Amino acid sequence: MSDGTGAGPGARARSRLTVLSGPSGVGKSSVLAELRRRDPDLHFSVSVTTRKPRPGEVDGVHYHFVDLAEFGKMVDNGKLLEHAEFAGNRYGTPREPVEAALAAGRPSLLEIELQGARQVRAAMPEARLVMLAPPSWEDLVERLTGRGTEDPAVVARRLEIAREELAAEPEFDEVVVNADVRSAATRLLDLVVGPPPVAR
Length: 200
Known about the structure:
Elements (H helix, E strand, L loop, with lengths): L8 H4 L4 E5 L6 H11 L4 E2 L3 E2 L14 E2 L2 H9 L3 E7 L2 E6 H9 L4 E4 L2 H10 L4 E6 L3 H9 L6 H16 L6 E4 L3 H13 L7
Parallel strand pairs: 1-7, 1-8, 2-7, 3-4, 8-9
Antiparallel strand pairs: 3-6, 5-6
Helix pairs in contact: 2-8, 6-7
């Protein structure tokens, strides 16, 4: 895996769960899109959410869109590996696809919020937690305010949440700085298919 574009058979034999978290605006979607392009065989978990689809989002591809009642049933029946509320909506990770991928020896990647990452750490201590961070706080502020299309109160709340998320960095096994999407994707792919983290 010296070229950062894939993994050899030895690495592929390892089954590991990697959890990626990071503040809004840090570029998680762009980095994950690059990862999918480089290694289509990785298992990318599709979250369940109660929020409405945004333009261009496809049910079952970007998210599984459900109502509050269905989400509640999934929680009650233990079908979610983790679940959390964010910005007034509920999100969760279906347990069965992740467990099936790991049982088949496929590295699995979850992109979830801090609350969910903490739940996964408690449930699966062997999971590797990775934070995607901005090059600087000023850079993140620019990314979130530069759009100029959202209510200032919403942006302020996102910045408040982002500060809390970045303060949790010591809880993570690794930090990947997203100064460049391709470089960040290379580093993340190394972590997803590389050796397991050192036990704490």
